[in-house]
Amino acid sequence: MEPEADPFLFIFQSVVPLLLAIPPDAILGVLTIVSLIVCSALISGSEVAYFSLSPNDIEKLEQENTPVSKRILKLRQKPRKLLATILISNNFVNIAIVILSDFVLVRLLPEATFKQWGESLIGLLGVANTPENVAYYAWLASFLITVVGVTFLLVLFGEVAPKVYAKINNLPIARLMSGPLDALNRFFSPVSMLMVGWSSSIEKRLARKTQSTGNIIKDDIHDAIDLAVIQEDDHIQEVDILKSIVKFGDVTVKQIMRSRVDVVAVDFRIDYHQLLEIVKESGYSRIPVYENDFDHVTGILYVKDLLGHLHENKDFEWQGLIRTDVHYTPEAKRIQELLKEFQRHHLHMAVVVDEYGGSSGIVTLEDIMEEVIGEIKDEFDLESEVEYKKLAENEFLFEGKTLLNDVCRVIGVSTSAFDEVRGEADSLAGLILELTGRIPKKDLEVTFNNYRFKVVAVNVRRIEQVLVTIQ
């Protein structure tokens, strides 16, 4: 009876000769490809790992205060440059894998094999069997095998699998790759910074184009509103409201706020009787309270809180009624965002601050709503808050501090009529300064399109009155 053959010995005797027949440079190429695929996987995974770190992960890294955590936080400070470095590195690795794969394939398979595949393709496609066609289709077969094989390996092991793993284990991968990425970030710094600069330039151009397209779309909507709504006296208000809704998202706080020179505010050190006098004269339901000057607003006084203390003497400590939950908002904030904040925090007033932290004025919920539905008058508003005189059909005398939006409403033109030249100006006086570049003298006239502005009154500090004529 013959002894049973060892299967492992059979496999060893079959495989070893095949391995020995492989050229050493091909084996080295295969090992290099495997190493590069690992590198590609780590680099691709690091992209997901670094850009998926949560605020809790960042806080944890800040508390660790180790060299690795500091490196991770430093890399995240410039995310555009980091992403450019990762993409450049990954592309270099993938290109190297493709080149080496083609070399290994040629070394592993003899030329006769490719020639046989080329002849098979010629037979399938019905092409003439000439030496030139055989050589071309042999190369095509080699190319297709390389592309399909490398694409499969890169997509599976270099992209999908590592990114899924990195999403789950982002912090360990970020720690592992902090050193290599820092080195690559330094090495590819000139190229990555160039890419970041190009992308920023393209983004700015696209943003300008988008903004321009957005303006065109809004103009089309305005025209559509004019066509859709019947132009009768009882429909004019509907047209204005619809157009106001369209441009609502573009209006900033600075355009609708009440400037600090027009704000009724009180010093927290005045006595109670003085306070009551100011409340009676102003007629406002909420009054800002400041310390020393309006740049230091400490709270808001709600007049309704005084109703139970009307008969107190002048030494009454009314300061205990001040509500200190003051809401501050920058001049550049869109009123659409501010309205959401008012709704979220149940507020009706905010103090507007400029870029230097000083108080520019106040803005109220009523100011925001008036941008949509027009001027709101209550029982205390006996006259329009916009100070002007209509001297003739096309002549209006305004205070210099009047907001441009209010001027446009009074004279019956679009609030975007002066956008071309208004610059950063929000008042009529500011528009004159933008047009002249200096504080003008009395009786100076400036024209823009069909509008003529004449300075009627001016002092050394500001323009007080302007005559607006529609030509």
Account of the 3D structure:
This protein is of the alpha+beta class and 471 residues long. 58% of the residues lie in helices and 14% in strands. The protein has 17 helices and twelve strands. Helix 2 crosses helix 7 and helix 7 (131-168) packs across helix 8. 21% of the residues are buried. The model is unreliable at 9-19 (pLDDT under 50).
Radius of gyration: 37 Å
What series of H and E elements makes up the topology? HHHHHHHHHHHEEHEEEHEEHEEHHHEEE
Total beta strand runs:
12
Contiguous low-pLDDT stretches (5 residues minimum) are 9-19
Strand content: 5-15%
- What's the overall geometry? elongated
Major beta sheet, strand line-up? 8-9-12-11-10
Largest sheet: 5 strands, antiparallel
Helix content: 55-70%
**Which structural class do the helices and strands define?**
alpha+beta
In short:
The chain is α+β, with helices and mostly antiparallel strands and 471 residues long. It is 58% helix and 14% strand.
What's the SSE blueprint?
Elements: H1 7-21, H2 24-51, H3 55-64, H4 67-76, H5 79-108, H6 111-125, H7 131-168, H8 170-187, H9 189-228, H10 236-246, H11 253-256, E1 258-259, E2 266-267, H12 272-282, E3 286-291, E4 293-302, E5 328-330, H13 335-345, E6 349-353, E7 359-364, H14 365-373, E8 388-392, E9 395-399, H15 404-411, H16 419-422, H17 428-436, E10 445-448, E11 451-458, E12 463-470
Parallel strand pairs: 2-3, 5-6
Antiparallel strand pairs: 1-7, 3-4, 6-7, 8-9, 9-12, 10-11, 11-12
Helix pairs in contact: 2-5, 2-7, 2-8, 3-4, 4-8, 5-7, 5-9, 6-7, 7-8, 9-10
